[in-house]
Every structure is written in C-alpha cells, then in structure tokens.
Amino acid sequence: MKNHEWEHNLKQQIPNLRRYARALTKNATCADDLVQDCLERGWNKRNSWAPGSNLRAWLFTIMHNLYVNGIRRQQMHQNFLDESTTSQIAHDNDKSYLVRDLEVCLSRLKPEYREVIILAGLENLSYKEIALITDTPIGTVMSRLSRGREELRQLMSGTGKAKLVSVK
Amino acid sequence: MNMIITDITEELIHAYVDSQLSPDERIQFEHIMKNDPELIEKVEAYKQQNALLHELFDSVLEEPIPSSLSTLPVNYKNSSILFKMVASFMLLFAGGLVGGITGWYANEQTPENPVFTASSIARAATIAHMVYVPEVKHPVEVAADQEKHLVKWLSKRLGNNINAPDLNPLGFGLVGGRLLPSENGAAAQLMYENNTGERLTLYIRNANTNEKTTAFRYYEETNANAFYWIDGNLGYVIVGDINKNQLLDTANTVYHQLSL
Asked: pLDDT value at position A73?
C-alpha cells in the first residue's frame, strides 16, 4: 500500500477508533489521546500490517495495548472512578434514563470485562478476533463476557447495588 | 459448519445475542429458547445492553473529527521535504530528541497481524516488543543502573531465577526491564540497545509445557525476527530488527550465558 492509500485507510478508521476509545475510557479527551497514539503507532508500523487482514482489528490490537498500558499507569482508570465524570453523566439529559444507567453501571465493571463487552456488543467483532486483540485465550474471552454481562445485568436491575458500594 | 444444538451453553447464548450463529443454529436456538422464560429474560437483557451501547456511543461516529487527529501523524510525514525539514527543525527545538526518535522509529518492528500461526510465546514477546521499543520516556520500568534490584524483583515475580545476560560483547547494553502480564502469569522483558539506538528485547516467562528443552525456533514478521526456545521451566524469546544471523548469534550468546 502506498503512503497516500495508508493515509486514506487510516483516516477511514478514525470514527470507529474514536467510538471504541470513547467506550473504553468514557472521557473524550483521554479517548482522543488514545486515538492519536494509536494512529501514530499504526502509521509507524504500517509495514508490519499483513495486507488482506482486518485493518480495524489490527488497529484495535494496538489500541488495546496502549489502553492496557494506560490502565497500568492508573491514568485512565482514575477517570473512570472520578466523581465529576459520574455526575456529569447523570446531568446529561439528552440521553434516556436507561442509557445513563448503562453508562454508570458499565463504568463499575472490571476493565477486562468492560472491554470484551464493548468489542463484542458494540464493535461486533468475532470472539476469535477479540481473543487476538486482547491476547487472551478464547475461553477467557467467553468467561469474561459471561461474567461481565451478568454483572452488568444485575447492576442495572438494582440487585448489584451492594457490590457497587463496596467497589467504590 | 452447523451443529445440532441439544444444550444451551453460555457460549451459545452470547453467540446468539451477538448474531454470531448461523441461520440454522439460530432457528434451533430460538426453538429451545421459547420454552424457557428465564433464558428469554437473560437474552433480552443482553440484547438490550448491546442496543444501549450503540445508543450511547454511536453518536461518536458522526462527530466531526478533531483537527488534532486528522492532521497527525499522517499528514506531516507525507508532506513535502520542505515541510519535513521545518517539522524536524521544530522537533529539534522541542527537545533535541530527533536523533533518538528517528533512530528508534527507523527500527520499528514487531507486527501485529491478527492472523497468527506461530507459538503464543513468540507472539506475546513480539507484541510486548512492539509496545515498548518505541517508548521514548518509559521504555523500561526499572533501569539498568538498578540491575541487581531488577533481577531480584523479576526472579521473585516469575518464581524462577532470572539473569540479565551481558550482550555488551555484541554491542548491546542493558537498558532495563519490566514485568508484564501473560497468559502464563508474570513475564519479564529485558531491553537492550546499541549505540545507534537499535533495540532488542528478551522476553522470559514460565513455559507451561511438557517440553523441557527445545531447539531454537525462528519466528518472523515483516520487520521483526525472533528466536525462541524453552530451557527447563522457562521460555525465552529474543526479538529484534537485526538480520537473522546476527539475531541467531545473540540467541546463542543468551542461551550460553543463561545455561551456565
């Protein structure tokens, strides 16, 4: 692929990368920083992308790695637990009650649960692709999905409240 | 390939919710589901989660892309030579880092191809290499000036004695190392660098296999080469962008030193 094709193809992925990053970090600034790092790394490593393979999955793998590093440094993780972020959500009246509920409950999940729920439910990637992106065996992907979705369901129906408090 | 569904497993429930079943499997699933109110409730809840996720985040797809993203990094790297010179000049003033940055980026390696065939350890090592080798500020967690502490710490976390091989005879000095998660628990990454900024990483983790000792195996991606082997409890991967023979020499040196 020539450079201008790469530029074009990378740019086409920006909306999807932004959506995934926003869902991961829930903070627009953090998310765009993540996208920027991801694009930069993707561009620098463009020669290592296997032509014909899924470019989006490849970029998501890069983003996953960047995100995991970010969590390790506790930067983005802090944003998840930040009070102001939560209250900002609660006052956003453009969204339905259910959507806001999902947003709050999703942020209470373990990051590794949240990530597979997003990759499967929002990004519609196959479980095999998710296993590659997160560098985990497919069995782990499935058990994270099961536990994550069930926990989310309980949080949203109110039965997970006690746990919610203890997490905080 | 279609299968006959006799039992509703967790895996099937999610595959159904995520529309990953074949049409035939879908019909079978729905047939079983209609007599199971609890299952229906669960499936509806999960489907609703997916729908809400879209409602919550799909608007991002329509947002105008901020200029910080649409101009970086692609445009300036593709632009005219004059622009590149100006950009380099600015970078030079930004921190005098140009030499370092171009040195490392010139050696970018470690592809991340979603279709992997090689062993998982070689792949994990290659991904770790890709993530940390381009790091300018934090390539390692513990730097080489604390080598003793580094080696002790990594040994403790891996539950096995780790040594940092001396690659100075090959022109590569130790930068430091870090601890990484892996599918087999903790893994260690040691990074080396030569005087032109080329970097090698040595990845070590518990082997978790019946094979106690293996020969060197070669793993190759577009810009990265790796040799990996198992010795006793540990698996080792040396990853770099140097040529195969040079890397094999390095692998031999590492193997020789570690087996002493």
From this structure: 57
CA distance A77 to chain B (A): 17
Q: What residue ranges do the domains of chain A occupy?
A: 1-80, 81-168
Identify the DSSP state of A168.
-
Q: Which fold would CATH assign to domain A81-168?
A: Arc Repressor Mutant, subunit A (1.10.10)
Confidence band of B32 (pLDDT split at 50, 70, 90): very high
User: What's the CATH number for A1-80?
Assistant: 1.10.1740.10
Name, in order, each residue with C-beta under 8 angstroms of A58's C-beta and a sequence gap of 6 or more. A42, A49, A50, B112, B113, B114
pLDDT greater than 90 at residue B132: no
Q: Which of residues 115-144 of A touch B (CB under 8 A)?
A: 117-118, 120-122, 124, 126-127, 129, 132-133, 135-137, 140, 142
Tell me: the pLDDT tens digits for A109-121? 998 999 999 999 9
- Dump pLDDT digits (tens) for B209-223: 666 677 788 887 766
